[in-house]
């Protein structure tokens, strides 16, 4: 089969490798497509702790496709279309434990479904404990921030979307944000949100960028006794935080990256229901379509965000 292999920083090749075989309790999925995650960018650029070459299909973890082989004890029918939680899906096939694949309903037939990032948004939203009427600041409006904007606004919250790009702010308005703020000047933003909220700031702040400045800003925008939710993936090194400020305000700080497989699966099931029921339409967020041999281009677009870009999908079938 064909599989993308990270050969060196900034260099991916498509290689012919053996088709993986499912073991006991596993299923093999013929991949239709896989989303490109922002967390793929740093390994692709060459983190100093990375090693090369990478595993065939490595980095790909937002896949969907059709079950084409099952191992002993895996109770799922061949031909079932599924979303999956796996790790080597930038390839024609990937293997996962049967409990990490979820059938897709007929309502999603013919639609791309990178379930893992939608599941992440669902789990982050749950951990945020957002209530109707609350001011909720969401810092960073990419794919994750846009979905969270929709979930929070549908829950009756008053969403303040903060992002660098004008098109991101327009996207946030389309997904339900009540207020949009350009992420240009740190102290101007703090002043604007303070004035908007009558000096109480926000009971909930979600940082969805994964960089130092947005994390600093999030700590300033959360109000006394509020909840700061870290949704950004901080993988490029340590961070410094103003614990004095956090301590004085008496806030809760939640790292909303779930590692419990049962919680991840719950999020995936809820994500499928959310889209199949029509409560969330992620289609406008899929702004770049690439083939497997264009994965380098997809990663560059994910990093550089050309005009109107939100999320790239790599399609294989």
Short summary:
With 317 residues, the protein is α/β, with parallel strands linked by helices. Helices cover 30% and strands 27% of the residues. The chain has helices spanning 41-45, 115-128, 143-154, 166-174, 186-196, 212-221, 243-249, 261-276, 295-304; strands spanning 2-8, 11-16, 26-35, 63-70, 81-84, 93-97, 101-103, 135-139, 158-163, 179-182, 202-207, 222-230, 252-255, 286-290, 311-315.
According to CATH, the fold-level topology of the largest domain is: Quinone Oxidoreductase, Chain A, domain 1
CATH superfamily of the largest domain: Medium-chain alcohol dehydrogenases, catalytic domain
Low-confidence stretches: none
Number of strands: 15
User: What gross morphology would you assign?
Assistant: globular
CATH class of the largest domain equals Alpha Beta
Mean pLDDT metric = 96
As a percent range, the share of helical residues equals 25-40%
- What value does the Rg take, in angstroms? 20 Å
How many individual domains?
Answer: 2
Content-based structural category: alpha/beta
Largest sheet: 7 strands, mixed
The helix/strand series, from N terminus to C terminus, equals EEEHEEEEHEHEHEHEHEHEHEHE
Number of helical elements: 9
Measure the end-to-end span.
13 Å
């Amino acid at each position: 089969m064909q599989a993308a292999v990270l050969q060196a920083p900034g260099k991916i090749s498509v290689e012919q490798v053996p088709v993986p075989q499912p073991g006991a309790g596993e299923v093999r999925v013929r991949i239709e497509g896989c989303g490109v995650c922002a967390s793929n960018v740093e390994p692709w650029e060459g983190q100093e702790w990375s090693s090369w070459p990478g595993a065939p299909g490595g980095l790909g973890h937002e896949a969907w496709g059709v079950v084409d082989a099952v191992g002993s004890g895996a109770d799922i029918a061949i031909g079932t279309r599924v979303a999956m939680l796996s790790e080597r899906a930038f390839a024609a096939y990937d293997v996962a434990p049967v409990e990490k694949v979820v059938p897709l309903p007929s309502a999603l037939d013919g639609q791309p479904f990178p379930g893992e990032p939608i599941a992440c948004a669902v789990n982050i939203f749950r951990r945020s404990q957002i209530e109707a009427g609350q001011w909720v600041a969401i810092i960073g409006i990419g794919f994750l921030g846009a979905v969270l904007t929709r979930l929070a606004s549908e829950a009756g919250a008053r969403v303040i979307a903060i992002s660098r790009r004008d098109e991101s702010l327009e996207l946030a308005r389309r997904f339900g944000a009540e207020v949009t703020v350009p992420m240009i000047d740190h102290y101007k933003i703090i002043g604007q949100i303070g004035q908007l909220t009558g000096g109480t700031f926000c009971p909930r702040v979600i940082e969805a960028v994964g960089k130092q400045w947005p994390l600093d800003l999030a700590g300033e925008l959360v109000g006394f006794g509020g909840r700061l939710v870290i949704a950004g993936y901080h993988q490029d090194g340590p961070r410094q935080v103003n614990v004095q400020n956090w301590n004085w305000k008496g806030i809760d700080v939640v790292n909303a990256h779930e590692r419990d497989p049962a919680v991840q699966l719950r999020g995936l099931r809820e994500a499928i229901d959310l889209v199949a029921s029509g409560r969330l339409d992620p289609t406008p967020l899929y702004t770049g379509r690439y083939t497997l041999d264009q994965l380098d281009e997809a990663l560059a677009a994910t990093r550089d965000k050309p005009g109107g870009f939100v999320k790239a999908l790599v399609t294989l079938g």
